[in-house]
Structure formats: structure tokens, C-alpha cells
Amino acid sequence: MSKLIPTLFLHYNLELADQDAEWTENWFVMQQGVNVRLSKRAVPS
Question: Please, what is the average pLDDT of the chain?
């Protein structure tokens, strides 16, 4: 689990699907209404 987030950021571009959308934050690990768009990144090998 400790390598999941760095691996996602290494291989994918993440951006908010709707920049103006409202979302709620209950705590760091429990956000709601946060929709993101993933696009595959070209990673040099």
C-alpha cells in the first residue's frame, strides 16, 4: 500500500474532472464528490 500512491503519480496524470464541483471533506481519507480523470503518462524506461 505504501507504493500505490507514488506508482499512480508516476504512471498517470490526475486532474479534477470538474474544477467547479463542490465536495465534502470529512477527514483526510474520506472525501466525497471528488471525481478525477486519469490519463496514462509516457514513462521513460
Answer: 83
